[in-house]
Specification:
The complex is a heterodimer of chains A (445) and B (133).
Chain A (H helix, E strand, L loop, with lengths): L10 H9 L9 H11 L4 H4 L14 H15 L6 E5 L5 H14 L2 E11 L6 E11 L4 E5 L5 E5 L4 E5 L4 E6 L19 H9 L5 E7 L2 E8 L14 E7 L5 E8 L2 E13 L17 E6 L3 E2 L2 H8 L5 E2 L7 E11 L10 E11 L2 E9 L22 E5 L2 E6 L7 E5 L3 E7 L3 H9 L1 E2 L5
Parallel strand pairs in A: 7-13
Antiparallel strand pairs in A: 1-8, 2-3, 2-12, 3-4, 4-5, 5-6, 6-7, 8-9, 9-10, 10-11, 11-12, 14-16, 15-23, 16-17, 17-18, 18-22, 19-20, 20-21, 21-22
Helix pairs in contact in A: 5-6
Chain B lengths: L1 H14 L9 H20 L19 H6 L1 H10 L2 H12 L4 H8 L3 H19 L5
Helix pairs in contact in B: 1-2, 2-6, 4-7, 5-7, 6-7
The chains are: A alpha+beta (445), B mainly alpha (133).
């Protein structure tokens, strides 16, 4: 064949096609198929030729997944996100930040559906996971995977997380810290604070803001040439787009790509702001007869005075916080796990205090330095691949770094001759600087 | 879609002993799935109409992220393609099959794969670039 007639692969079109969402199977798909296969089971000598793969993601072979995807789109086409660009009048990143801060500050509860899609490897299909979620201004949240039994519930006041499915053993993690840099509730996009991510994005210089219609609603899209690796930290990305719903000012979609190819998407649908949450929303109900697998991170709830007695020093607290923030909970631990993915020394005599304003959160922590100051690195580092230390920053007698970049919760951390201190959360760069500089051994606001 | 895919898996399962290994297992499975889906479409008499291009409402952009956000346009364009064109572009461009493999799956000559690809790409490209509104 003449090479000129040979169809070459259209890489750009192929990437866009692979990024489209494939309809999911009905919940009983596996069961129905197993029943049918059982009825069609060939005679024994035939069934030994090739064992059919278990039809449950992600144990499917690549060929089977790809075939299923082709079937889906050949048969029906694909339901994609209804995104339409309607103009480019730039709302400024600062304006969006202000709107978001206001929305987070005024909301008392939130429910919706969280969808996370990511490509499985260079040649893999797109894996979709979907949960419903509910969270409130006290820090409680609940996540339920669609189509699966069970739930994951975090009870902020107790520092306890319960997770259960259909198995006879359920997880019961106790003694959790309010949040980063210490072990809080299970890592999830809820925990990572969508608001903080967008705020950091809005503080980044190369962010472009566009006005669009997203699923029929006016929205902003913030784009940056940054690597966030929100879904799978190991997956390289080079660009991010965050869609923020104009009416509610909540982020509803984050798309990460690499060289134009889809890597991952986080999406919130059916978002409801301030729904009334029944009291049983956050009540764990593991299967009857199941037994707990209890683990303990080491934190205990305490007031400021009790915290001082446990750790032997006067905890630091910010003398200034943005209007509306108030102390929500303090937890102390004599000994707990190292921060920064285990790179730092074991944490001793830790005080972690969360300040909340609606759904916004700021966490201040103090821990003993120990013998070797050089052993410490950024306690809030997301992974060891981050080489950017941030901006050198001195505050309240501590020397450290100010880290405000897309993908990270805005934070400051530093050392003096006795302590390691962190400040992190839903703060602008200016607010973060002011809060950090106001730290003092006194009662917080 | 679930029903057709279940039919395809059952067919593949039952016919596994007849899989001689002349092609790859993946190609063979694609073919089983594709034929089953076409059978189901014929049974239902469903033939999607070809999409017609509409005037663009916004300047096209080569921004890959903007392209990703035109997923809805691309979905609609893809759904509007004739199933044979849709299969060709998905197998070659999305799934990365060589044209000989796609020809085997679709049961058509390689030259026909090429012509179907050209038509499919021409119809999808405006949606990819955000030019379909």
């Amino acid at each position: 064949m003449n090479d000129d007639t040979r169809p070459r692969r259209d890489a750009e079109l192929g990437a866009a096609l692979r990024a489209l969402e494939v309809p999911e199977h009905a919940p009983d798909f596996d069961a129905r198929l197993r029943g049918r296969l059982e009825r069609e089971r060939p005679v024994p000598e035939r069934s030994n030729v090739i064992s059919f793969p278990r039809l449950r993601f992600p144990t499917l072979t690549i060929a089977t997944v790809a075939a299923a995807a082709v079937a889906a789109v050949v048969f029906f086409g694909i339901q994609g996100a209804d995104v339409r660009q309607v103009g480019s009048e730039p709302a400024t990143a600062a304006r969006i930040t202000a709107r978001m801060a206001q929305a987070l500050a005024s909301a008392s509860s939130l429910t919706g559906t969280l969808t996370i899609r990511n490509r499985e490897g260079e040649l893999g299909g797109v894996h979709t996971m979907r949960w419903t979620f509910a969270l409130d201004a006290e820090g409680n949240f609940k996540i339920v995977e669609e189509g699966a039994p069970g739930a994951l519930i975090f009870l902020a006041a107790q520092g306890r997380e319960v997770s259960y499915g259909a198995e006879p053993v359920y997880g019961d993690r106790r003694g959790l810290a309010p949040g980063p840099p210490d072990q809080g509730p299970s890592e999830s996009i809820l925990q990572r604070d969508l608001g903080s991510i967008v705020r950091a994005l809005a503080s980044t210089r190369d962010v472009r803001v566009t006005e669009v219609t997203y699923r029929g609603r006016p929205a902003w899209v913030l784009r940056a040439q940054r690597s966030l690796r929100l879904v799978i930290p190991e997956d390289p990305t080079d660009r991010i787009a965050v869609t923020v719903d104009k009416e509610t000012a909540f982020p509803v979609r984050i798309v990460e790509t690499l060289r134009g190819r889809f890597v991952s998407e986080i999406r919130i649908d059916r978002l409801r702001v301030d729904p009334e949450l029944p009291v049983e929303t956050f009540r764990p109900s593991p299967p009857r007869g199941s037994r707990p697998d209890i683990s303990d991170v080491g934190f205990r709830s305490a007031d400021q005075e009790a915290a001082e007695r446990v750790v032997g020093y006067v905890p630091l607290a910010p003398a200034w916080l943005p209007e509306g923030f108030a102390r929500a909970e303090t937890a102390v631990a004599r000994v707990t796990d190292p921060t920064a993915y285990g790179r730092n020394p074991v944490s001793r005599s830790v005080v972690s205090t969360a300040y909340r304003r609606g759904l916004s959160r700021v966490i201040v922590t103090t821990r003993l330095l120990g013998q070797d100051a050089s052993a410490w690195s950024d306690p809030l580092a997301l992974n060891e691949n981050v080489t950017d230390k941030g901006q050198p920053f001195e505050f309240a007698g501590f020397a450290g770094f100010l880290v405000v970049r897309a993908g990270d919760v805005p934070h400051a951390w530093g050392l003096d001759d006795r302590f390691v201190v962190t400040v992190s959360g839903d703060l602008t760069r200016g607010e973060l600087v002011r809060v950090a500089r106001s730290l003092a051994p006194l009662d917080g606001p | 879609m679930d029903d057709a895919l279940q039919d395809a898996y059952v067919k593949a399962y039952v016919n596994l002993p007849n899989f001689a290994g002349a092609s790859s297992f993946g190609t063979w499975l694609y073919r089983v799935v594709y034929n089953t889906c076409l059978d189901e479409l014929r049974r239902r008499g469903r033939r999607p109409t070809l999409m017609t291009a509409e005037p663009p409402d916004e300047a096209a952009t080569g921004d890959p992220l903007a392209a990703a956000e035109h997923a809805a346009d691309l979905s609609r364009a893809l759904a509007g393609l004739d199933p044979e064109l849709r299969a060709a572009v998905l197998l070659v461009d999305a799934e990365g099959l060589r044209y000989e493999e796609a020809a085997e799956v679709l049961g058509i000559p390689a030259g026909t794969v090429a012509s179907r690809l050209n038509r499919a790409r021409a119809l999808l490209r405006p949606a990819l670039l955000g030019e379909t509104r």
